[in-house]
Amino acid sequence: xxxxxxxxxxxxxxxxxxxxxxxxxxxxxxxMVGTGKYASNAQMIEAIEASGAEVVTVAVRRxxxxxxxxxxxxxxxxxxxxxxxxxxxxxxxxxxxxxxxxLAQAAGFNEWVKLxxxxxxxxxxxDTEGLLQATKVLADDGFKxxxxxxxDLITALKLEQAGAVAVMPLASPIxxxxxxxxxxxxxxxxxxxxxxxxxDAGVGTASDACIVMEQGVDGILMNxxxxxxxxxxxxxxxxxxxxxxxxxxxxxxxxxxxxxxxxSSPTTGMVGS
Amino acid sequence: MMGTAxxxxxxxxxxxxxxxxxxxxxxxxxxxAGLKLDPRIVVIEHNGTILRDRAAFASVxxxxxxxxEIVHFVGGG
Lengths: 273, 77
Hints:
The complex is a heterodimer of chains A (273) and B (77).
Chain A: E1 20-22, E2 25-27, E3 31-33, H1 41-51, E4 55-62, E5 83-87, H2 94-106, E6 112-115, H3 128-140, E7 144-149, H4 153-162, E8 166-169, H5 183-192, E9 198-200, H6 206-214, E10 219-222, H7 224-227, H8 232-252
Parallel strand pairs in A: 3-10, 4-5, 5-6, 6-7, 7-8, 9-10
Antiparallel strand pairs in A: 1-2
Chain B: H1 4-8, E1 10-15, E2 18-23, H2 28-34, E3 43-46, E4 49-51, E5 67-75
Parallel strand pairs in B: 1-5
Antiparallel strand pairs in B: 1-2, 3-4, 3-5
């Protein structure tokens, strides 16, 4: 294996004092990853292993009855090792998203869904009205809804009230790799919500992930940032380190910013004084 | 009964948006077997109703003009 060096899982020297819990279930990693856009299933599995992720997202699509492609992902992902989180990507209405969530549930793994109701093809920004509607219906129906949304506080609060078990504001648009565009908005959402806040979409490289975690959010979900890297397996490992580093930096509490220099070495005892 | 004529009779279904013909009297399990699909990794919506009991696929009869959606999990973010 080309990346055997990346697959070690050394325990952290200072473990996270807070477990990562969503809807009463504890997860072993704050990094969640998608399974789309990989060059091969083998590469996808190697990258997911290197990321250390437990939650792995999948999409629901028609089976290609002519079998021109091997798209079925369950041949490659062990549901005992990964927590499969189905998404409703590609849905442009609450009704469609609800239908996809129910199809995914019927696969028999869990009643969790990463709910997306997209409002615009160019930006893939959420249709927050449809999202709220679908969240309410699915939460009332017993689903654990993780709602992909924009970085708007009011929508995030309404999603929580509608029964979402986690709110997933974007760092920047899906697949853009632009990193976090509005740290203030992300911090505000985290401060005001009781349910976990998991930043979803927009992370382009490890520093983006680190900065997101430094805002104090509970986790990150990413796909393209890993899958579209030149070396996805190595980037998955970098993302794992970055999420852990950002989490520790947040817990440690950064030094105050100053606009003047403060020497680190003693100013007394200089030779010749 | 009409002998061999019945055995040869076919009905037309819509499966994943396209017409597909199966022998009259086929069950859902027969259709899946014909498509070489593993029932354990697909989810089926039959005329708008999601079928939750895979063990019962063999006893789901197919009728002319039935609409089936056969989906599975693929890579996604």
